[in-house]
Design goal:
Blueprint: E1 55-57, E2 67-75, H1 81-91, H2 93-96, E3 106-114, E4 117-126, E5 129-143, E6 146-154, H3 171-187, E7 191-192, E8 204-215, E9 221-231, E10 238-246, E11 252-257, E12 260-261, E13 291-296, E14 302-309, E15 315-316, E16 318-319, E17 334-338, H4 344-347, E18 356-357, E19 359-360, H5 367-371, H6 374-392, E20 404-412, E21 415-416, E22 420-422, E23 427-430, H7 443-456, H8 465-486, E24 498-499, H9 509-512, E25 515-516, H10 523-526, H11 535-538, H12 543-557, H13 559-572, H14 580-593, H15 598-610, E26 626-629, E27 639-642, E28 645-650, E29 660-665, E30 673-674, E31 682-688, E32 692-699, E33 702-709, E34 716-721, E35 725-731, E36 734-741, E37 746-753, E38 759-761, E39 770-777, E40 780-788, E41 794-802, E42 808-810, E43 821-828, E44 831-837, E45 847-851, E46 859-862, E47 872-877, E48 882-886, E49 900-904, E50 913-914, E51 922-927, E52 933-937, E53 944-948
Parallel strand pairs: 17-20, 20-23
Antiparallel strand pairs: 1-2, 2-6, 3-4, 4-5, 5-6, 7-43, 8-9, 9-10, 10-11, 12-22, 13-14, 14-15, 15-19, 16-17, 17-18, 20-21, 22-23, 24-25, 26-53, 27-28, 28-29, 29-30, 31-32, 32-33, 33-34, 35-36, 36-37, 37-38, 39-40, 40-41, 41-42, 43-44, 44-45, 45-46, 47-48, 48-49, 49-50, 51-52, 52-53
Length: 955
């Protein structure tokens, strides 16, 4: 009999998942867990580039160059800058290889003018469908009646060749699949107890389609872009997931969070989880009298703030001083709203109903305005506006005189929300509590969040993977630069590089800070490959590698010059899918354009070198594991093993092929065999017991559960379902999986006898029954379940169903009356394993327990507290060992907060050992035989299927 299982147990925050990265531009998305951009080739000869051009960087997997600098090529001075940019690209087709330069397939994103400099951003479309990250920039100078192109940069994908006319999947099917995928990601583990007197929380999520989008993988993948919003059924946090569903099969290829947070607290997701419109702005003219109010900041400093006195004599936190009298906008430029006590879910991408600005009967704002964070939010927002206006001539965050709104004091489930975020339209600051002040208390937090708005309106760096880490890095860089200027702090101050250092009520700056731009992080020792669900692919975790290089440059060049270089790189060179190497190239090119000296240029390059940001840096990342398959390039599909065999989904290196299922030997010997049909469907969630392999086949008409003998034979459909599935497991005649029930908004475990075709739900599928995290062995199915007892009280536990008799056996959880959550189950010859959390007051540790199949002889493998306690999240077991995936809580991101593997003996004796010391995600662990464990590892920057035959010990 095979050893059992584990995976698809997904935590709502930082859950492990297949990482999938891929370093070439063609593998940017690779349906990967990481959006890691390609490494541009070294400066290379490109057709039709003048010898005088100072630098040319070839594009990866495209004929269009990634960067051309030092041009002086004349284009028409009359007409719009966008038309002139298209004329240039059309006239140099041998250089750019952009076949269609019409506005239909190369639409204008924005035109920016700074003095005589013009920057045009153009969005690539293919047959009228936008290409994710396909953006090309043309830079020009216009003076003395002439207009010259000075350079270009970006990504234009020349290998696209696909049908965009007839997507097989309807919008509604795409929405249903997307919502199901988000539910699976949020709610699969652990299964949590509901509040007393309450039933299970249903998935309050909905989706809206944002049209067709092409993922630039290989020749292109047509998807329906769905934005899923609402409130997490697990923890009540807001949800906003950008999901891309394959338009031909309906498989959710890619999803990542759409919120840009300051720190790692909370879920790291945002949503339009509530209704409500933006408050009506005052119709007062921009030259309305600005009242000078007085207030005290958190730090005790008295300050002047701009207020507005309305017709009723009330002083409101509205600042009209930032908007010119001839502005095309009507209403306040800058306003600060009282959101105290409002749930973050109602403020994320939406406006809480009836919200008003902070208001006072006098211009002298009292202590309440200070303690609420309103004074600092309002004052600092003005400082941020002034910084961008005075240094770069930028009119507000959007560069078009747009509104600046701040919501201050939101909570999460009635508790302090220790975070802040930009949701695309406004800043939202958590109320704080305990060790933290309201998150507007530190100017660098305000500068950080508002800079996300600047980034969104310039390079619009995708908030995932390396591009997301650069987004965070730029927000940190400018947030800190603004903080120092506004508060008259020198770069020589030892705390100058700290972010969030003023947020704490008792801790000093260094103990309080969430990040340090002087932490010395480098790619070689600090970069980690992490899933989208883990910090959105490392947006905070890896950010100080890039921001540290920028900060070093600022220390050596001085703030004025460094800030101009970085802003120019952001506003005129970077594009949405740029990564660290391309970011380096953008900063260097911007420095050259601004006329730095040779010595200064050397400093710029040295700053990146010191942080390991050099072409090819990913190749230096090493592992202590045996690689079975490299570059499998799959997202969120798991891995199965048993009887010396593994089963895994795999795509080609650029991720453009639909996923197919492969089976091989867990020893790594021999050649893997293709098991699924090459039918254009996505074949995922594979598992095997060494004799049979099962998987889910996603097609436009539904999801089929397929099975095939490992030794060969015909694949047959053993079940079918319309909603999303996860966690397939197989042993002998039985296959089980978790299915999302859209009727009741919950999950249920379904099982099928593959010999007879009989199928059923383990819990009957009633509205208030919830089950998940199944394992199967010898005709028995173990699972976590939440269901009402005879008195209507909901109980949480572990059950084992004997499929032969229909009998159910309760496993002896340690404290059935107070169990907080139940995690993944596993069945072996020796019994049943599960994760059990009985203490809601600790920091997240959970016990690993086992019992015989009849519930007797319970054993605690690892305790919930004390020595050998683990932040147990999911597990997998063989007859000889149990392997636990841990996920420690985190207020900041670090390698040791990522999913890591620990192993213990079945009786718990001998303690626990680290399975591997790899840096990066260790996701979807699956036990085979003995102590052997396989998993999907992201350390190298690719998704690799790896193994270890025995633990590494300690790291």
């Amino acid at each position: 009999m095979r050893s059992s299982v584990r995976r698809r147990a997904v935590r709502p925050t930082r859950a492990p998942g297949s990482t999938g990265v891929g370093r070439g531009t063609a593998a940017l998305l690779a349906a990967a867990g990481l959006l890691v951009t390609g490494i541009p080739a070294a400066a290379a000869a490109t057709a039709d580039v003048p010898a005088a051009a100072s630098g040319v960087t070839s594009g990866a997997d495209t004929d269009t160059p990634a960067l051309v600098a030092g041009l002086h090529e004349e284009v028409p001075a009359t007409g719009s800058a966008a038309d002139a940019a298209r004329t240039h690209l059309k006239g140099k087709q041998s250089r750019y290889h952009i076949a269609d330069t019409s506005s239909k397939d190369l639409s204008t994103v924005s035109t920016q003018s700074e003095g005589g400099r013009e920057t045009v951003r153009l969005q690539q479309k293919y047959q009228g469908v936008p290409v994710l990250g396909g953006e090309y920039v043309v830079r020009m100078e216009k003076k003395s009646g002439k207009r010259d192109v000075t350079g270009t940069s970006g990504k234009y994908f020349t290998d696209l060749k696909l049908d965009t006319v007839a997507p097989k999947v309807s919008e509604q099917t795409a929405i249903d699949r997307a919502v199901g995928a988000v539910v699976s990601q949020l709610g699969q583990a652990p299964l949590k107890r509901t509040a007393a007197g309450e039933g299970p929380v249903k998935a309050g999520l909905s989706g809206t389609t944002d049209g067709l989008t092409i993922l630039p993988q290989g020749t292109g993948v047509l998807t329906r872009h769905v934005t899923v919003t609402g409130v997490s059924p697990v923890d009540g946090q807001p949800v906003k997931q950008e999901v891309y569903v394959d338009a031909h099969s309906g498989f959710p290829l890619l999803q990542y969070s759409g919120i840009k947070t300051f720190g790692a607290t909370g879920t790291g997701t945002a949503a339009t989880g509530a209704t409500g419109e933006a408050p009506e702005a005052s119709t007062a003219a921009a030259d309305q009298l600005v009242v000078k109010g007085s207030a005290v900041r958190y730090n005790g400093e008295k300050t002047e703030v701009n207020l507005y006195k309305d017709t009723k004599g009330i002083y409101q936190m509205i600042d009209y001083s930032k908007r010119a009298a001839d502005s095309p906008y009507v209403g306040p430029m800058l306003a600060t709203y009282d959101a105290r006590g409002r749930e973050v879910a109602s403020a994320s991408g939406a406006w809480p109903t009836g919200i008003k600005t902070f208001q006072s009967t006098t211009p002298e704002l009292g202590e309440d305005f200070t303690n609420s964070g309103a004074v600092d939010a309002h004052w600092a927002a003005g400082k941020v506006y002034d910084y961008y206006k005075n240094h770069f001539g930028r009119d507000s965050l959007d560069g078009k005189d747009g509104f600046i709104y701040s919501l201050v004091g939101v909570v999460a489930n009635g508790q302090p929300y220790n975070n802040a975020f930009w949701d695309g339209t406004k800043m939202v600051y958590g109320q704080g509590g305990g060790d933290y002040r309201t998150f507007s208390a530190d100017t660098d937090v305000v500068g950080h969040e508002m800079t996300h708005g600047v980034v969104e309106n310039t390079a619009n760096l995708v908030y995932a993977g390396q591009s997301g880490a650069m987004n965070e890095a730029l927000a940190d860089y400018f947030g800190n630069a603004i903080d120092l200027e506004a508060n008259n702090v020198s770069m020589d101050d030892p705390d100058a590089g700290l972010l969030g250092e003023d947020l704490c009520t008792t801790l000093g700056p260094r103990e309080c800070a969430l990040r340090d731009l002087n932490d010395g992080a480098t790619t070689s020792k600090d970069f980690v490959g992490v899933t989208y669900r883990g910090d959105n692919g490392g947006v905070h975790l890896n950010s100080t590698i890039f921001s540290g290089a920028l900060w070093d440059m600022r220390q050596d060049l001085g703030g004025d010059l460094a800030d101009k270089i970085v802003y120019r790189a952001l506003s005129a060179y970077m594009t949405p899918l740029d990564g660290f190497t391309e970011g380096r190239a953008a900063v260097i090119a911007a420095a050259q354009e601004l006329g730095v000296t040779k010595a200064q240029l050397k400093i710029v390059k040295r700053s990146f070198d010191a942080h390991g940001i050099v072409p090819g840096w990913e190749k230096a990342l090493g592992v202590d594991t045996d690689t079975i398959l490299s570059k499998v390039n799959v997202y969120n599909t798991g891995v199965g093993a048993g009887g010396g065999k593994y089963a895994v989904s795999r795509s080609n290196e650029d991720g453009s092929e639909p996923y197919s299922v492969w089976v091989g030997n867990t020893s790594g010997q021999g050649t893997p065999q293709l098991m699924s049909a090459n039918n254009g469907d996505y074949n995922v969630y594979a598992d095997t017991d060494g004799k049979t392999v099962v998987w889910a086949d996603y097609s436009s008409s539904g999801i089929k559960i397929m099975a095939r003998p490992v030794k060969g034979g015909v694949a047959k459909m053993v079940d079918a379902i319309g909603s999303d599935v996860s966690g397939l497991v197989v042993d002998g005649d039985y296959v089980a999986y978790t299915a999302f029930n859209p009727q009741f908004g919950v999950t249920n475990v379904r099982y099928v006898n593959m010999k007879t075709g009989a199928a059923a739900l383990v819990d009957g599928g009633r509205p208030y029954n919830v089950s998940g995290l199944p394992s199967v062995g010898d005709g028995k199915i173990a699972y976590a379940r939440l269901a009402p007892d005879a008195y209507g009280n909901f109980t949480l536990g572990v059950e084992v169903l004997d499929t032969a008799t229909g009998a159910k056996t309760e496993m002896p959880v340690a404290d059935s009356a107070n169990t907080v959550s139940i995690g993944q189950t596993a069945i072996t010859d020796d019994g049943v394993y599960w994760i059990e959390d009985n203490d809601a007051t600790d920091t997240g540790q959970a016990a690993v327990r086992r019992a015989d199949l009849d519930g007797s002889n319970p054993v605690t493998i690892t305790p919930e507290s004390g020595d050998d306690s683990l932040y147990a999240y999911t597990l997998t077991a063989s007859d000889d060992a149990v392997t636990v995936t841990t996920l420690p809580p985190a207020t900041t991101w670090a390698n040791d907060t990522l999913p890591k593997l620990y192993q213990a003996a079945p009786d718990g004796k001998g303690g626990v050992q680290r399975v591997s010391c790899n840096r990066g995600d260790q996701a979807y662990a699956i036990a085979d035989e003995g102590q052997r464990v396989l998993w999907l590892d992201g350390t190298t920057g690719y998704t690799n299927l790896v193994k270890r035959d025995r633990p590494a010990g300690s790291c």
